Amino acid sequence: MTVSPLVWGVTIVVILALLAFDYFFHIRKAHIPTLKEAAIWSSIYVGLALIFGGVVWVLGGSQMGTEYFAGYITEKALSVDNLFVFLIIMASFRVPREDQQKVLLFGIVFSLIARTAFILLGAALINSFSWVFYIFGLILLITAGNLLKPESTEGDDEANNFIIRLARKIFHTSDSYDGDKLFTMENGKRVLTPMLLVMVAIGGTDILFALDSIPAIFGLTQNVFIVFTATAFSLMGLRQLYFLIDGLLDRLIYLSYGLATILAFIGVKLVLHALHENTLPFINGGEHVSVVEITTGLSLSVIVGVLLVTVVASLVSPAGKAMTAVNNARRHADAYLDLHYTADPEERERVYKALCDEEQDILKMDLKYRDKVKDIEEIRETVARAHSEHERYLSR
């Protein structure tokens, strides 16, 4: 189905209006969103995405509707996985809790711009060269394999990449934040703040994410309107989702396996489609290869099924519960000890109470699960220091 310029224009205006609303009504004044606020707005954005999908289904037909929902669910799952990296980056730069919303919104906007560019490039390549499907399929199969690799023991130092090191050498940067400002005055000179550097780091990783996500959704549909809207709506509400599931991300211990399965499945689908449309002379003499093609309906069923199994298995897993509690305790202990984390006394009290609650949960768990968590002894030392610091604070 061909989408008219009017529909394109209205859709883009709606997406831009949502981003503007998010900034002026939620981000402009730095604050830490409550769990209730994050839950309400996450639900609203998911609801808007579902309503839009319903409109697409009614006006564009079941094929377009199925393609939209398959693309939206896949991109949403990949976006949740991206939150892990955002969490690492903001922890590396010690971004104050109340300023993290602005960083996330910037990441969403930059991601939308980067992915739109890749969508247009991908569409142009597909229209000109059918063999591009082979490349997209190979990218997804390699990405799926990388997701199954064990985590590096050295940790993810996403913040210390080449762009950041270059920026620190070329420009004058301050060591401390000045609210959510990108520039500040230091010794009479205008310098960059770490806020600008963390945005550069987020932007750099967004480009890498686009290299995986765009081939994935092109494996489900070649309709540029569906690719763009499914990608855009999957990013909407990602900021609120971050604060809603912050602390539960570690619980999804099997998410990488689920995403690897989905990406490998779509990669195979792309290769089969490339064979069906084959024009390469060294494959079957340049003639189309008669192969089974995977339908969009089957793709949607596989994606939903894999994600359900992955999430349920992660939530009921004793190892997942132990990892969540222990890592949350470490995160809250680090936050309490870090004076740059937040200037809000109520937020620090909330963090300490959460730490105490998590310790109680950990004590009830089987030792064989909690002792398997990486760096467990270091985590125990950090938690002990947090308690000592709290005792000193109370004795003042």
What key attributes describe this structure?
mainly alpha, 396 residues, 2 strands
Low-confidence spans = 152-160
Order of helices and strands: HHHHHHEEHHHHHHHHH
Average pLDDT number: 81
Radius of gyration: 23 Å
Which percent range fits the helix content? over 70%
Shape: globular
Counting DSSP H or I runs of 4 or more residues, the number of helices is: 15
Largest sheet: 2 strands, antiparallel
- Could you give the count of β-strands? 2
Class from secondary-structure proportions: mainly alpha
Strand content: under 5%
Give me the side-by-side strand order of the main sheet: 1-2
From the N-terminal CA to the C-terminal CA, the straight-line distance is 70 Å
Provide a compact summary of the structure.
This is TerC family protein. The protein is mainly alpha-helical and 396 residues long.
Explain what the structure shows.
Keywords: Membrane, Transmembrane, Transmembrane helix. Pfam families: TerC. It is found in: Membrane. The chain crosses the membrane at residues 6-26, 38-59, 79-96, 103-125, 131-148, 191-211, 223-245, 252-274, 294-316. Belongs to the TerC family. It is built from 15 helices and two strands. The N and C termini lie far apart (70 Å). By secondary structure, the protein is mainly alpha-helical. Helix 1 runs antiparallel to helix 4, helix 3 (62-92) crosses helix 8 (224-235) and helix 3 (62-92) packs across helix 10. It has helices spanning 5-27, 35-60, 62-92, 100-128, 132-147, 162-170, 194-218, 224-235, 238-245, 255-276, 296-316, 318-337, 345-363, 367-370, 376-394, and strands at residues 183-186, 189-192. Mean pLDDT is 81; it is low at 152-160. It has a two-stranded antiparallel ribbon with strand order 1-2.
